Description:
By secondary structure, the chain is an alpha/beta fold. It is built from eight helices and 15 strands. The mean pLDDT is 92.
Amino acid sequence: MLQLNVKNETSRLRAVVLGTAVSNGPIPNAEDCYDPKSKQHVIAGTYPTEEDMISEMEAVAGVFKKYDVQVFRPEVIEDYNQIFSRDIAFVIDDKLVKANILPDRNREYEAIRHVVSQINPDNVIELPEICHVEGGDVMPWNDYIFIGTYSGSDYPDYITARTNTDAVIALQELFPEKTVKSFELRKSNEDPKDNALHLDCCFQPIGKNMAILHKNGFLVEKEYYWLVDYFGEDNIFEISKDEMYNMNSNVFSISEDVIISERNFTRLNTWLREKGFTVEEVPYAEIAKQEGLLRCSTLPLIRD
């Protein structure tokens, strides 16, 4: 049996689900895209090839191997995008919560049944249908659970709004000993530079007490400043609009001092090294074209 344990984003990783780009399917039609960035690349003819995405994900698998992390992969569904395993479930403490994602993507969860079956069924939670939530919006951080949400009355109009208030309330009820802190995110169906698809597109804790942040991703300024106060200005790496577009906040921590990052994130990677982190650089720019990066394609199961 798998003894799940995830208290935060940065403790030493022991087991993880890494998505797969094998049999990723044909290039979608622009009108079928779930986010503005994918749509942009479909229209421009620059949508990533399966071959490139497979090699990028294998580079990450190689880093996990180097650090002796147990890696699970989804069963391959033919012609189906299964890269972003973070969307389909998330672990808090010893519980795995099945995400209520876009209905078209339910098969992705079925493809990790071989992992879920190794977990005590009492620790696998399915939220009521009314609760919309994806793992990219949910960040356990010790005594806190940070959640990205959108509570506007026009929520149904945004295919980019993935986590609703009902889910925030449900998670607070599930984890009463934690403080659930929600953040309203800026949403756009059309402009990827004005769209924080998930909380990890504009914020991520790193190390013991640092964070990567993008102010414009937050709809409510005081919520952004709450994070600045919480982590402290000197401990924050503020990314620009272009850096957010390229997913600079979507790195992935193997431990408090080892971070997997995209090799083109020159400014960020330099800062991380100056702060004492070991940065494992990988190519991930093709996968980034689908508005997701390293955190999005990993589902941590066990951390120390």
